[in-house]
Structure formats: structure tokens, C-alpha cells
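Subgroup meeting minutes
Present: P.N., E.W., G.H.
Scribe: E.W.

1. P.N. recapped why we're keeping a running log of single-chain structure predictions: easier to compare across weeks, and new members can see raw inputs and outputs side by side.
2. G.H. added today's entry (453 aa).
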Amino acid sequence: MSSRSFHGRARGVAAARLALPVGALLAACARTDPRPNLLLVTLDTTRADALGCYVMRPGLTPNLDALAARGVVFERARTVAPLTLPAHASMLTGLVPPRHGARDNGLVPVPSKARTAAELLAEAGYATGGFVSAAVLDPAWGLAQGFEVFDAPPPPPPESVVHMEERAGSATVARALAWLGARDEARPFFAWVHLFEPHAPYAPAPEFLARANGDAYLGEVAAVDHEVGRVLDALRGSGELERTLVLVVGDHGESLGQHGEPTHSVFCYEPVLRVPLVVQLPGGARAGERSKATVSVVDVLPTLLDAAGVALPPGLDGRDLLQPPDPARAVYFESYCGWLNYGWSPLAGAARGDEKYVWSGVDELFDLATDAREKQNRASTRPDVCAAWRATIAELVAGPALSPDAGRDVDAEQRARVQKLGYAGAAEPGLALPAPCATTGLSSPLERKPELA
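Output recorded in log:
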């Protein structure tokens, strides 16, 4: 289905509010399906330590903090890549980037062969709606498959000079609430709401800038918190929140100048890798838990499917967040942005507990328990450990990869829209990417940091 038809269907949804509590009670009486609703909220460019529930700093994110108090907080959650499309593709397919194929923004779409959360849940009878806030997640990039309604920012008119490649979270939330209010209430729903505000350039409204004491980035995080609150308040008012699993997760963080990176995309240090991840269960089960398990955004799909009672596809890289943790588990991450756009070495790495390894043409090995800011590279004294980590990385990406769709490409206009969001977009779509940890002789991004300023 074309982008135009997706936008058209979404615009056709009546701009209705959620039903009043009495109406919701009547609908609940009529509904016999016992499965929970599923709400996935993805926070673009949001560091875990920007939320009060992670740094015990009250005031900036009251809605997300309240959600955390009613749910399970994952303290060691990481993304698979510091880029929007690869991270969301892993959330919705349960596969790491070398397997789903979306390795950068604006490069190639997720293959139609992917079995996404929306497809599997729709086949199981769920109403499915997706509402995203930036062109990097436009239907052309492959994540609309399975959604009955998918709403993304429309392209600007040809004569426009206004930046319209993203839209305000308030507009995205309004679309989502309209769909929730007009849907078939006899069916459980799966709704995905993506909020883009913390992405540069930071321009929060005065009220949110004041809440953040003048910090523009944190002001955008406060604005996102407000929009999350609107969604939760609407579900609470309709009586649906008590039977809804809510999963809130960041797609990646933001460097804010740490390690010489102004924003994100090239490096894999904790400011961009560590993300907030909170799950609130229906009825408030397990409220107040805090987990130190090693988890990843790739765990989103199996968590949603298990909650809905839908069989998991074979060969996933993710696992249900709500099952007992595996202390031996390691999670994979990468950034091929430097290789694709600048000719530098790609980055690949993995983490388990407080130990983290990154390969970028050189080895980096960190003990986060004693070196949270990743200032002390221990690789030179632990070559055996580094070699073991490279073997682990090979195992983590060893599953079969989805083949790209033959003859399918994204037009130049869509690529230009992604570039307007600040992504380099210099690479050619047909490039064959090297395996993680396989390239030699290229500049490490560590040597080229000044060029990112």
C-alpha cells in the first residue's frame, strides 16, 4: 500500500475523543476477548538518565515516573544501533540489524519478508494502528506492514520552504487518540505511538524549557513526557488502561558532546546506547520492580506477542522481558554510519552485565561498574577477553538474514526527507556491508572525532 493511501486512511479516522467511562464500561461488557490491549510508545533520542525514574530526579518527567512506579523498570536496557530506523526495525521484528537489513537511516527499507509485530498481531485479531512523528519512519521504509492504519507526517507541498519532515508529538498523539476512539472496541488493540521531540534541533515550548531549568534537550524530554501523559490519561478515562500492557522504550540516546559526539549515530558509548525501558502490566501486576537484567530493544516483539498469547516466530534474537532473566545473556549493538557515510571503520559490540566491548578497528573494553563514563579502556591488558567478545559477537549475528526485496527501492525524494532530519545519507543503497569486526585498515572513528564537531 502506498504512503498516500496510508495517510489517506488515517486522515479519514474521525477526530473523536475516547469514550466516556460509562461508554467504556458498556463496551467492556460487550467484549469477550480476554487478551490485553498493547500500547508501544517509542521515545526518539531519549537518554535513560533524562528520566526521573532512572536518576531519582523528580519533576521533569512526572508521567513517565508514575508509569515506572506502576510497572517494571529495566535499568540495563540498550538499543541495537544509535539510529532511528534500525532500532525500530529491531523492536518490531525481534531481529538484530545484520538480520533485518536496515543498518542506517535512509538507506534501504525493512524487507517485506519480515514478520513484524503488527502483522502477527493483526493476524491474531488485534486492531493495529501506527502513528509516527518523522519521515525516517515513513511507510516507504518498511515498518508500516501489518498496520491497518499507519499515520506519518505527509510530505511538504512542493512550493513549501517550511521544515515539515517531522511533526509535533501533540499532533501525533491527536491522531492516535482519534483512532483509539473510533476503532472496533470488540477487538483488543495494538497501538504504536512514536514521539520525536528530543531529536536535534531542540526547541521546546517555554513551559517545558522552564521545567528543565533552561536545558533545551531536557525541555524536549519534558514535552514528550506531557504527550505520554495525554495518551495514558485518555486510556484511564475510557477504562482501558487497566487491561492494557504499556511498553515505553527509547530508540537510542543522545551524546550531548560526551566522547566528542554532538548528537548521535557514529559512536556506541552509553549516552546513545542506554535507553529507558518500562513495562506496565494490566492491573498493575509487578508494580515497582526494577530489573538489572541485560536487555535490548530487540526484546519488544517477543514481549508483546507473549502478552497476547501469539506464538513467536522461530529464530528470534529477542526474548520476553517479563520472563526470568538469563544472567549469561549478551546483547549486540552496532553503528555502520561511519563506514557508510565517511569511509571509516564500522563499530560493533556487545555487553553483558557491567562488561562492554566495542570494536571499531581497535578494541575497547569497559567495566561500567567502576567506569560508568567509559574513560578507562582495559583492552590492552585483556586481549584474551577481547577475542572472546569478538567470538560472542559472531554468534549473536549468526542467524539467517532477510534478503532485500528484489527491484524495490525508495525514491530520491524520500531519501532527501531523511537527510533534512540531519542524517548524512551519502551511502549507496546497493552496498554490501562487511561483517561485524571484519574490516581492517580503515580509520577508526576514534581517530576522527574532531570532524564530527
